[in-house]
Amino acid sequence: MPEYLQLLFPEEKNEGRRGGKWWRRGGGAGNRIGGEEPRGGRVHFKWEVEYMFWSPDCVENVVMGINGQFPGPTIRAKAGDTIVVELTNKLPTEGVVIHWHGIRQLGTPWADGTASISQCSINPGETFHYRFKVDRAGTYFYHGHLGMQRSAGLYGSLIVDVAQGTKEPFHYDAEFNLLFSDWWHKSVHYQELGLSSNPFRWIGEPQV
């Protein structure tokens, strides 16, 4: 880790890379770094945002994906955990930011992902580390917050389970995460030009 990041995040010294996977002292499995800690652990993701060909409704189109996935990977954490997302922008000509919808960002406003308000966009080829704590259990989602990037497919689920050692106040047999979004066959550039033109040009109803 660069020295300036070590000054900002001194506890990061307990992390590293081993065999291409992230680890944290204390063990752990999957995307989570380390075991589940009563006062909050840490989950770490390494993402690359890029355009790719995809067929969401059996019609091939260009979508914006993360690590070759559309929608993006699901983040799963526990209340009290710190989420770290190492995001690299692999878009050829566009900046990118991610907004974590519903996360309060207490003490970390720079991680809110609102371009030109609380964060500069991440330029092509650059990497930015989002680091924030999730303090409330619930089902949230994240999405691109620059131009029409959410419409282009840059979004995914963020699920925060109750804190370690806490029981949910209700019982259910199973859990199924369903993520809905409108989808147009016209490109996001066509959509953006139509919506911002004067006179306004209606882009039509979504195909899906």
TrEMBL record:
Keywords: Copper, Metal-binding, Oxidoreductase. Residues 49-162 form the Plastocyanin-like domain. Belongs to the multicopper oxidase family. One of its GO terms (molecular function) is copper ion binding. This is Plastocyanin-like domain-containing protein. GO terms for cellular component: plasmodesma. InterPro entries: Cu-oxidase-like_N, Cu-oxidase_fam, Cupredoxin, CuRO_1_AAO. It comes from Fagus sylvatica (Beechnut). Transmembrane segments: none annotated. Pfam families: Cu-oxidase_3.
